[in-house]
Amino acid sequence: MYVYLDHAATTPVDPEILQYYTLIAEQTWGNPSSVHRIGQKARSVLEKARMKCASILRVRSREIYFTASATEANNIAIQGLLLKSSKKVTRPHILISALEHNSVSDFTNHPDAEVEIYPVKPSGIADINTILSFVKDDTILISLMLVSNEIGVIQPIKELVEKIQQINVIRVAQKLHEIYIHSDCVQAPLYIDLDLKQLGVDFAVISAHKLYAPKGAAVLYIKNDVKIQKTVYGGGQEKGLRSGTQDISAIASLAYGLDLAQKNVVKSGTEIKKFRDCIIHFVQINIPQACINGDLLNRAANNIHITIPEVDESSLLMALDLKGFGVSAGSSCSSGSNKKSNISKILNSNIEGADIRITLGKNNTSEEVKLFCKTLQELVEELSNSKI
Asked: What are the residue numbers of the active site?
């Protein structure tokens, strides 16, 4: 038996969604850009998926764009805004949180923009006043992940949006560039009622493979009055913003998975939260030297992130894997990377050791959780003793 506890990295494909994916692949294989009936059948499935996603997220279908991944969606949004704003701002200024995914944080290396990282509180929650203290005349974008992919904290996006909307009234009068809000929402749909209209962001991103759907599709939401420049050239698909033939099966499955996720938010969150809290309680009692990272109240129902002092991270991850448990040290999106998580520094913690991210899923059982806790305690004791 192997127990998978790394659902923030990717989710196993749900059999119901896989069946739907296969059905679409077999029956709707045409190119949606073709004018004949085979192509138009694919076009119909594509647009129905767009309308479904828009309805679930409470936005308009023309605000929904499909890409092949969340990384691509983040890049289209940020790079597209940079290119558009460069006509008005000489060197655009972007603010990103210290907890962002690499597809956002790597913009700090952008040659034509000033990109600053703003800190978060020791709880992992971003402080609105701190963010605002970084704002400059040339600021065009603030990026803040709705749910951290590493420590699971839920960020105060709505409050940030409200503050920025007030500031934008003044900036427009001063003929300054409006500040837009971008949020990577990849970790959110399974555990948060995701109403993008109410959230108020200008850009949002969702990924299929975090919703028990197959890899290969993502949603990029762009608020209707926000204009960006295209970054992908070609056939002009997705209203010219993302050229390339759409993967109809992946996109339809994304919409199907998003629908299931949002319909089951309360049920899934309640059940998984019990297991999450069980692990947290066990660690606090039986591995008291460990530190639970991130706010314990404002966090995703499935996330536990801990730092265990005096234990080698790689040794613990490998030992858990050999015992039949798949966990990670943090984000799994850096190809071939063994780079240690920087979470202790980000949270201003002086605790160093093994950073372990445990992210539960809907198929995990009480027995698996109990066995994991027991195994984790045994391995921590074994690896701690080996250093003496």
From this structure: 333
